[in-house]
Amino acid sequence: GDLTMKEKESLPKTFYTVDQFVARIDGGVTKNAVYNLIRQGKIPVQQLGNRILIPATWVNDFCNSCMYKAL
Questions:
Q1: Span 7-58, pLDDT tens digits
Q2: CA distance 26 to 22
Q3: What local confidence, expressed as pLDDT, does residue 28 receive?
């Protein structure tokens, strides 16, 4: 059957929305800055319809490096 919201939230993340990414890095950059980095090709994305999704593997690597301090 279908998963409940609580079950979905406990699943490992595979993608982040731009809002979730900004929240994950504690507002270290603005949404506009993230969209600019996506346009410059510095953040890899998957598009699903009109949704922009950032792969969780990239987000985790990004957060585990000091890369975001250089943005």
A1: 656 667 899 999 999 998 887 889 999 999 999 999 999 998 999 999 999 9
A2: 6
A3: 80
Token match 């507002």: residue? 27
Q: Residue 3 pairs with which residues in a beta bridge? A: none
Contacts with 21 (C-beta within 8 Å, 6 or more apart), sequence order: 34, 54, 59
Q: Is the pLDDT of residue 3 over 90?
A: no
Show the tokens assigned to 20. Answer: 């979730």
Q: How far is CA 17 from CA 1, 14, 60, in A?
A: 25, 10, 14
CA pair distance 68, 9, nearest whole angstrom: 25
The CA distance from 53 to 34, in Å, is 12
Max alpha carbon distance in the chain (Å)? 45
